[in-house]
Amino acid sequence: MVPSDTVTRILDAAEVLFAEHGFSETSLRRITGRAEVNLAAVNYHFGSKQALIQAVFCRYLDPFSADLHCRLDRLEAEEAGSDLERLLDTLFASVLEMPSNNHDLKTFMKLLGLAYSQAQRHLRDELRSRYGTIFSRFLKLLRQATPELADDERFWRLHFMLGSVIFTLSGLNTLRDIAEHDYHQRITIRELSRRLKPVALHALRAPVTDADCSPGSHVISHPRTGTHS
Amino acid sequence: MVPSDTVTRILDAAEVLFAEHGFSETSLRRITGRAEVNLAAVNYHFGSKQALIQAVFCRYLDPFSADLHCRLDRLEAEEAGSDLERLLDTLFASVLEMPSNNHDLKTFMKLLGLAYSQAQRHLRDELRSRYGTIFSRFLKLLRQATPELADDERFWRLHFMLGSVIFTLSGLNTLRDIAEHDYHQRITIRELSRRLKPVALHALRAPVTDADCSPGSHVISHPRTGTHS
Amino acid sequence: MVPSDTVTRILDAAEVLFAEHGFSETSLRRITGRAEVNLAAVNYHFGSKQALIQAVFCRYLDPFSADLHCRLDRLEAEEAGSDLERLLDTLFASVLEMPSNNHDLKTFMKLLGLAYSQAQRHLRDELRSRYGTIFSRFLKLLRQATPELADDERFWRLHFMLGSVIFTLSGLNTLRDIAEHDYHQRITIRELSRRLKPVALHALRAPVTDADCSPGSHVISHPRTGTHS
Amino acid sequence: MVPSDTVTRILDAAEVLFAEHGFSETSLRRITGRAEVNLAAVNYHFGSKQALIQAVFCRYLDPFSADLHCRLDRLEAEEAGSDLERLLDTLFASVLEMPSNNHDLKTFMKLLGLAYSQAQRHLRDELRSRYGTIFSRFLKLLRQATPELADDERFWRLHFMLGSVIFTLSGLNTLRDIAEHDYHQRITIRELSRRLKPVALHALRAPVTDADCSPGSHVISHPRTGTHS
DNA sequence: CATGAATGAGGCTTCATTCAT
DNA sequence: TATGAATGAAGCCTCATTCAT
Known about the structure:
With 229 residues, chain A is mainly α. Chain A has helices at residues 5-21, 28-35, 41-46, 49-77, 84-96, 105-117, 121-145, 151-170, 172-183, 189-205, 225-228.
């Protein structure tokens, strides 16, 4: 049951190389070379390259999914599931404090970005079927926390937010370089999540514009913000 | 000066196939096959696959860049450059009403998503050097429109927003399918932009949290958190 | 350690085809076709075409180098190292009686000619670094055998001689045809080496002209020359 | 009749590039690029790449052939045709003092080396048929100058000598680098020909060994040398 | 007379995968 | 269980050449 050393070495190498160069751009040769295992080992242990890709994700997401379930259990036990801010905090905490801390969060976020943008339908399908449960659970709590939003509006806003996270974190290296160059400031993922939280919070709470949004409708204020400051 | 028929056919085919399958996953053979031109034509007209990729982007972004410049000129002529909502409206309008409407916006957004997530450093470098001017101009106006934000904070928020746009639009097909299935509602890009606007507006205007906000922090008050620490 | 059958077949085919058509003019397709192995086998076993070229040379020169070392050992044991004629005899014998007599000397000489004339810098560098030792050893003995020559003079004469050998042997087919046609005489390599020896011997021992010897110079006396000066 | 500028430019570029990289390794694209003429110009003016190669040789060898004929005329007029040293001097002078001195001798010697070693049968055939006359004439004079040699022996010795010249000059850059590194001496072609002459002279005059030349037959001296020292 | 466009053939290399050992 | 050898497919690119203009 314990994954052999070979399997682990392959997964470690693949994780880094996939994140760095993309799936198609990373050959099995390179992976096995870095892992210092036989070229045929990937097909032997995983069956195919696609299966390896999925295994890389599962190794990360399985514990994450379990961890997030735990935290949501606790949140519900405290009957705080409908507090939007606590819900977001819980999510952020689970992402940031993943137990498998020998793995790089940035690396995995890059992989997640690739999974969405690259033509890896097989991967998205797998992820959806395997982690649909936890996603649905989170979405349900989010609905309780934002009862003022129509379901479809919430759906889109959640994905806006998801886009912010994945895009920013998956391109972190590039963006960090720019930021460092322009603002002389090296940012960590923790700091980034600190910056992201209020943005996500207010984005989700923004009032809905019921009609078109042609210029002139800029009377929108954001009442709830006042309570925080 | 006028691009030959062959050149146009190649660009058209490449645009669609790249968006659909990614850059590495799309072979020149397939592109030239779809374009019904000779395999060597790509190398003849563009020099390499990388140059073709860049050309696909430039064909779209050059007119866009020009159009946005025009609109920003008008905006400044009206002395409305520092109105955040008008500024966003201008950007949205430029994106949505691109003259070359024979090109699919969704397709291009997918390409943009790929450009950021895939390992195409050459492409990002090219885009940055070629469209840095218009980006800087927009950023300068955005600074006037959001004077309360520190430069670095604005930088990151802009990219949060960018992530929302690119992620949502580049995965539009998938997301639209889900939304249609769950909420029985077929969304258009126009509607999506209507939904996005208030979110972007409030995201940019969200108050800055001055200290760290890791779980347990006190800035944002949520009483029960105390029990965790 | 033992070269697989596939490796040997590739080397055999490459040796002949390279000698016959040159390096650039011989495609891997043709080599693998003649060797009746898979096209990818060359890259699998050798890594690249260049590496294959070098391997062809090494397969021949490694045993040759070892053999010549042996013979020079024996020569020095007999304290005959400084006898020019014995030294040349030793070299000739080593070249002519190479153990791997399943390989064609003529073929290899052609390859050697190509190595020098074609633009294969990588090959020359490799040969120099790999066989510099045996070359230096021979040169050292040659210095003892021709103490009357300045080092640089000896260097050039050695290469004159080398040119004679390589040029003649590498073009042997053509020249032999002409000779056969004109002088009705089919020559073997052994006979050729018999003809070459006195020429090499006297070329090396030729007196040095101390000044320039542009037309009309007087250093080398041959009666009729006097009528010119 | 006067070759157009385009033709000259192509020949100039081809001459240098062929010498530097070989025939197969030099593409028409590169030639026309360097010559700054249209890619199709080569096929337009010369018909094919092979024809261009031949044209490069003819542009050099035609005047050389004419010049050598002249010099041999004068030599015969002086009834000095059978003087070996004067014959060699004449040849050397013709080679060294070619009228078309805007062309590099070294460059051309490299080309000649390539012509012999590379698989350019078409070229060798062309050269033989076009310059066979002057070669025969020289050979006839050489026979008069070395009456003691059997025809076949002379034939081979002439080619030994030719090998020395072509090999040394065609690989001049490489050899010069070595010589410069080892003996701190930068040699010119003129100096090289000074070194070559006595070697050629004595090589041609070396006594014939009538039988085998196994070790032990080293009683051979070279009587004429004695008269020099 | 000269050229830009286009082409079919073929170049070397790399890929993921399979299989006998 | 694990691997070295081998393979068919396909990758991108460059070639010399042709042809309509």
